[in-house]
Amino acid sequence: xxxxxxxxxxxxxxxxxxxxxxxxxxxxxxxxxxxxxxxxxxxxxxxxxxxxxxxxxxxxxxxxxxxxxxxxxxxxxxxxxxxxxxxxxxxxxxxxxxxxxxxxxxxxxxxxxxxxxxxxxxxxxxxxxxxxxxxxxxxxxxxxxxxxxxxxxxxxxxxxxxxxxxxxxxxxxxxxxxxxxxxxxxxxxxxxxxxxxxxxxxxxxxxxxxxxxxxxxxxxxxxxxxxxxxxxxxxxxxxxxxxxxxxxxxxxxxxxxxxxxxxxxxxxxxxxxxxxxxxxxxxxxxxxxxxxxxxxxxxxxxxxxxxxxxxxxxxxxxxxxxxxxxxxxxxxxxxxxxxx
Length: 340
What we know:
The chain is of the alpha/beta class. 26% of the residues lie in helices and 22% in strands.
């Protein structure tokens, strides 16, 4: 039996940025503490590369993206099904909500930065809201578990990635569990890395300046010549195959110059692209390109793919979190934390 609350918002505190609530009352909201308000602005300010090559892209492709996201990853399902009945689970970066309600004996609240994906969740009667992964609007020690599935690799700086992990830990109770999965640079199919567009080896603080824009190395192939990955062409393909086919990037923290920062293309068919007109604007402004041969608008999504040990290094600076499990599965690095 799912545990329900009379007013879920009594467990939320407003983020510093505007957020939109779906399926929730707006009464009895908490005010953020002084400590929460003093978080570094460079961490909470969204870098331009994320605005243009994550947020704008998912705004444009949300319905098509959602139609490809239905299969549950077995490792995530196993984690959720292992939780105690009645547990409150917070899904940060819930996308179209495919994991919300997976274990019917638990209570779920999802959030995502993308309003279009949250609207899809709300229409499915999930408890959801629009919120930023680096500034979750929940009270401290609220949930029994939190999950972040394929989210952190869209954050363009180490500070923001660490802050997102700190938030996942902050919002769970002592003894609560946190599951994080990210795309790995160590892909099972090495040929896939050649199909993405490598970016600069490192981003400085942190593409916040609108006058700065990411550029590719001169040796990189043109976007028009990047072959579409099989998983994008087959939009309704199984999620496990998808995870094998779409990693992200970044320079390895171990100092071995491993490329980890990439643009990964998403091909939005013309018949879907014209629904909102957003794609025409994106093409006009240079954030997307038309591929008449494939009948699609090609968007580039920013990814920072994680190197082996990178998640553990990010967690090592968090005093109240202990690693209880870590593993590599289907070209993803995964870690389970326990709040101490």
